[in-house]
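Question thread 4412

I'm putting together a teaching handout and wanted feedback from people who do this every day. The idea is simple: show students a protein as raw sequence, then show them the structure tokens that encode its fold, then repeat with a second protein so they can compare. Below is the first pair exactly as I plan to print it.
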Amino acid sequence: MLRERHHIFLGLFVASDAIIVTAATWGAWWLRFRLLEGFKPYGELVDSTMIPFWAAGPVLLAVAGIMRLYKPRRDEHFLREFKAILRTVVVGAISLVTVLTLFRNELTQGVVLNNLQFVLWAVLVVIGMTLNHYLIRRILRWARSRGLNIRPVAIIGTGPTGQQICRTLRSNSWTGIHPSFFISHVEDDPPEALEGLPVRGGLETLESVLKSESPSGVFIALPNSMAARIEELMTILGNYPVDVRVVPDLTFRFIMNMKTTALDGVPILSVRESPLNGWGGILKRTVDIFGSLLAIILLAIPMLVAAILVRCSGPGPIFFRQRRHTANGREFSILKFRTMRELTPDQARIEETSDRWQRGDKDRVTGIGRLLRRTSLDELPQLFNVLRGEMSLVGPRPLAAGEVADARDSWHGFMLRQNVRSGITGWAQVHGLRGEANNRVRMLYDIHYIRNWSVWFDFWIILLTVRRIFSDSSAE
């Protein structure tokens, strides 16, 4: 019954996407040759032939099937589905152009279609499919939270891991995955009930339980001492139409961020890995270079005015420099506009080697310095740190050597924070955790950012930063 429902929902997604792709062909044609009719970069060579919708729909849906866009996604965040939609449309658009080029004479009577029309079509399809999938997913979540479209599952293992899986599934009822009963891994005197659910026998009676209860899925949550029995269980489960998931017997803070990869066919569980390795790091660095260059160009006049005002505020350098740590423990000299009166040589030496991040004695803040801090303009010289590769536009705040040493020894997992470049702004800063805010709380936000990093997350933080610039009281 549940699998029949899955086919119904699959048909709903495919049919609605087909309508959207068809509508996008009309929309792209109307935008290009009605709304943008006067836009003719190639003179009169622009053709007004529409992309054939009877070719666009089948090609894109075929690509969607190949790229498994319509696989079940009950327990996935919608962001992953959006990425799948984006990949599908990009590959689909390239495939469509290729098909219409190779079969130009048969499909478009030898006419070469307008390139801009394909771009508009792809944009409309991405927007339409994203809204469509999001709306359907929200409706399904709403239904599942009210007991509809539920998939009952069994949990094999009554230890801490099995109990945690049960609690996690219950607290995320939107997935529609409902724990129905346990199967005990304890042979002698298994409990009758656990977490409010019945315990239906042990491993020796697994087959009879599967026949009588007919769950749609199984979670294997055995302790490490019984890991050798997982292969035996997989053999038994292979004879039944159930989805099988294996939960490693690890602390849940590790499981939450675990990734599975394969090396020459050997599965590898990655427990702790920076998301900025590989292409992620290249993409982030590219955004940093172009973003900092653009910001320097746009903010050149405000920076020049700020430098002149700092120079006029009293004796001392325009820039304040302090040694800080960035990715992999590398030290660099952070740049800021000076906002305080000049220190004596002895005071400067003490502050330069300070193990604490501090704004200094507020009584020494100049009038111009107070304005620069309130508007965060004192941070602008750090754009040059970003350009030099010492910092990033978005990332954890830069720490002093003493702070790194203290946190490393007292807080497990802290060093994940040191895998990425420090940032001008970050997830902690946009939540008001600046200045003398509690370091431990701030680092929790930093680690959350690293574990959930994406380019879109960076853009969102930048937008929140712009909004907070003139309202952040912690910038005082």
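The second pair follows. I'd like the answer to focus on this one:
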Amino acid sequence: MKSRLTQQRKLILDVIQAACYHPTAEQIHQLAQKSMPNLSVGTVYRNLDVLRDEKRIKRIDIPGEPARFDADPSHKAYFVCRDKGSIYDLDLDAATLSKLLKDHPAIQRIDDFSLVVFGTAKDTMTERGMRKGRVNQFLN
């Protein structure tokens, strides 16, 4: 059951959806405070947990870094460029992953996955460009 979309929760969700990158909780807090100055960081963290539990957003865990958040909660993989610190969505779903791993003796079916790939992005790639060039209304 989805909880009520409070004013704070809606603002946090709007910030994540408008972001041209995968923001951290601190970045979400800073952007949301422009519209709601009294919003506390604790409120942001609590609402991020609720939105994640309700599968409205996805949390991206990268070892040694703060969690990032994605407005698209679908099952997919991420590519982290170590040079740029950017995170790119990879077009990889459970069906494609199942095909790639179909001959693995331990796997019968893949229902869900969490995959983060690390490397170096091409010089021409930008995280903002990969996010379809959406303009972040909260930075203006």
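Top answer:
Good format. For the second protein you could add a caption like this: The chain has five helices and five strands. The chain has two domains: 1-72, 74-126.
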